Amino acid sequence: MALTVAVAGATGGVGRTIVEQIQNENKFSVIALTRRSDMIDDSRKEHVESAISDIPYVQVDYDDIPALVQQLEHHEVQTVICAIGMLGDACSEAQLNLIKAADRAHTVKRFITSEFGYMTREERKDIDPGVDWFLAAASLLKSSSLTYTRPVCGAFMDFMGAPRARSNIVPNTIAIDVFNREACIPGDGSARITMIYSYDAATLIAKLLELDEWTEFSFCDGEDTTLGQALKDAEEVCGEKFNVTYLKPEDVAKGDVPTMKVLEGSGIHPDDLNAYSVFGYQLYLAEGFSLPAEGRLGNKFPGFKPRTVRDFLEMTWGSHV
């Protein structure tokens, strides 16, 4: 019988992509944990994708730890992947409760935390106060009986493909808007950044399940580049120069940055896009999205080659220039 993996937050962009890739690998049985049933009336399904076929969706209450334990044991879950977006204290509490339930469930042995972006460290709290949510989860896991890992992907290059790229990530126009041929580059664009396509990151997370041993951090094998180089790649693929604004680091530090055009149908409010941009630009200048060269997952799966920025741009925009 195939081992069973439970993915929490499976209706979100990252969670759904991970579920799809585990399903594609076809080596594990997967169930999707969700706070909503897959049959809830449409008026309450804002921004939730349709259910993935052949995947059981299990509605859970993250405030009820005993019930969570019961569900995990009932479905004989061995590994839990948390992909709940850390958007507030309630989301953090949901992950902490899921860790406690997984630790109590006699079937569960392993846990993957909800991080997926940059490497969260104490010194990043001046940019991201939410660092405490990730550190609290790591601390709880260290004191548990679970084997765990904290996945770090870098920056998803999906934003450079919006709205044409295949992606479950909400389409953001940040830094480089290929659709409108515009860019806002923090500093001179030379800060280092590791970029990866969300489906490649999810494939590596799915392959991570095959490993017998995990390290504390699991670094995805994205391309190490800069926004300046990514912009050059985009201009060359599109065959035209973009309208580029270079942002002074001191203005970025103060949060004084322009808001790029919101893509139609994205559902993002301009104020939210601006706040996300400030966070992203500040972290980029601090090279927070630059991952260590050592310990990349790609070294353990040499047959899998994630796409480069250039590969992704040609795949997405090559026939639309």
UniProtKB/TrEMBL annotation:
Pfam families found in the cross-reference section: NAD_binding_10
Domain NAD(P)-binding, residue spans: 9-149
InterPro entries listed in its UniProt record: NAD(P)-bd_dom, NAD(P)-bd_dom_sf, NmrA/Isoflavone_reductase-like
Alphabetical list of Gene3D superfamilies matching this protein: NAD(P)-binding Rossmann-like Domain, UDP-galactose 4-epimerase, domain 1
Keyword Oxidoreductase: yes
Molecular function as annotated in GO: oxidoreductase activity
Oxidoreductase in keyword set: yes
Keywords of the record: NADP, Oxidoreductase
Signal peptide: none
Similarity section: Belongs to the NmrA-type oxidoreductase family. Isoflavone reductase subfamily.
UniProt cross-references to PANTHER family, sorted A to Z: NMRA-LIKE DOMAIN-CONTAINING PROTEIN, NMRA-LIKE FAMILY PROTEIN
Name recorded for this polypeptide: NAD(P)-binding domain-containing protein
Source organism: Penicillium nalgiovense
